[in-house]
Amino acid sequence: MQLADYHATTENIDATTDAALTDALVQAVDPELMVDMLNLGLVYHVRRTDNGDYEVQMLLTQIGCPLTDYLDKMVQHAIALVAPDAQVRVQFRLTPAWTMDRMSRVARMTLGV
């Protein structure tokens, strides 16, 4: 699987790294919903910078989400599994608005939607 299979766009990431990031990020589970961030459609864009660091844009399901610190740490840990020396910056976005259309079939079935 690739990040694009979860509606996430990438920049400056080769196919092998993309697959490794995907495998790592599906382990990052939202503690409230018990579904990973990729299947929820929260990961919006992943960019590898020219110096090998990563910038991750994530959508929030609501304004003032109390879990941003937790989600930030989960994403940083997941990327460290693939690129242990890279710096990771997570940016939370409210636009475009997250909708249930971004959720995978797995997430919908898990959540009963």
Automatic annotation (TrEMBL):
Domain of life of the native organism: Bacteria
Domain MIP18 family-like per the UniProt entry, residue ranges: 19-90
Listed InterPro entries: Fe-S_Maturation_MIP18, FSCA_dom_sf, MIP18-like
Entry protein name: MIP18 family-like domain-containing protein
Record-linked Pfam families: FeS_assembly_P
